[in-house]
Amino acid sequence: MKDRKIGKLTFGIIILTVLLGLYFFISNQDILPPTDITGHIEQNPPSHILTTPMDIRVHKHMLEHADGKGRPGVIINYNCIQFECESDLLENLARIVNLYPDFVYLAPYPNMTAKISVSKYQNQITLDKFDRESIINFIEE
Length: 141
Fold this sequence. Notes:
The chain is an alpha+beta fold. It folds into 2 domains: 1-30; 56-140, Glutaredoxin (3-Layer(aba) Sandwich). It has helices at residues 2-27, 56-64, 89-99, 132-140; strands spanning 74-78, 104-108, 116-120, 123-127.
């Protein structure tokens, strides 16, 4: 009987350790916009500059080819919910989008663990402050 109690206690400790490990692993993972096209849908966003988050399936479609045709898209996401954003951040990001009206998009991504993310198919940069040169270099590379 005593061995059974020790066995149950040991099993409980092992389960608790595994669950805590999973919790810490998951909570320390970066949450960033996707850079793949798996699960995309053939739908375009209503605009190149959005004030609401872009549906992930549409996001993936724009990475494949902007506006459903042509070259692959680039998506600039920002998170001003969890990060303090400069008052002119959205205006500065929109100016960049307007330089490339055929294939660059701007949308909030409130759950990501970065302030700014710029995504292409299979490639991405993150920034903790606005850096026009880095964003433009990434778009044009």
